[in-house]
Amino acid sequence: MVPFIAQGHLNQLIHLSRLISAYNLPVHFVCAPSHTRQAKLRVHGWDPLSISNIHFHEFPIPAFPNHPPTPNATLRFPNHFMPTFNAIMHLREPFLKLLSDLSTKMKRVVIVHDYLMSSIVQDFVSVPNAEAYIVTCFKLVLLLLLFGSIGRKHKR
After folding, report:
1. Among 150, 107, 113, which Cα is nearest to 127's?
2. What is d(CA 61, CA 19) in angstroms, rounded to the nearest whole number?
3. Which residues pair with 131 in a beta bridge?
4. Distance between CA 30 and CA 60 in Å, rounded?
5. Which residues belong to any copy of the Glycosyltransferase N-terminal domain (predicted)?
6. Helix, strand, or coil (residue 21)
7. Which residue of 9, 41, 134, 139 shows the fewest CB atoms closer than 10 Å?
8. Catalytic amino acids?
């Protein structure tokens, strides 16, 4: 599992980890230490440390500023996330090393990753017994807003 480091993304993939581990499959959860700690503390109804086949791999990333969004920006790109994306690029190399190690011990390695982490897991193609699947972690509210706006006339 390779979640994006925002809380809503972490929560969904840690719960998916629990479901997969219930089938007696090992799950390796890759994240930065502070974000893994947040995910473990905010899980409700079960203790992620009590499940023996969920393994947490914490790889450090540099500190980064947490800028607020610019609501009236002329460019609609969320520039306030750029420091986050730059920091998480430091996960790419340790992830590949872990993947290479796991691939020698297992017949098949399946990577489930947040779509925002595609640049981190992209090297999986160099590992013959690895395959990757993308999870899109949208909130229901976002989907309702998106679908609610379809068919409406927008002011320009």
Report:
1. 107
2. 28
3. 110
4. 11
5. 1-141
6. helix
7. 41
8. 9, 114
Name the DSSP letter for residue 120: H
**Residues 55-92: pLDDT tens digits?**
999 999 988 877 777 777 777 667 777 888 889 999 99
CB-neighbour burial class of residue 88 (10 A; exposed 0-12, middle 13-18, buried 19+): buried
Residue 106 gets the label, from left (phi > 0), alpha (psi -120 to 50) or beta, of beta
Residue 110 in tokens = 């399946």
The H or E element that residue 41 is part of is: helix 33-42
Query: Using CA atoms, how far apart are residues 156 and 154, in angstroms rounded to an integer?
Result: 6
User: What does the chain come to in residues?
Assistant: 156
Distance CA(117)–CA(134), nearest Å, equals 9
Longest pairwise C-alpha distance within the chain: 57
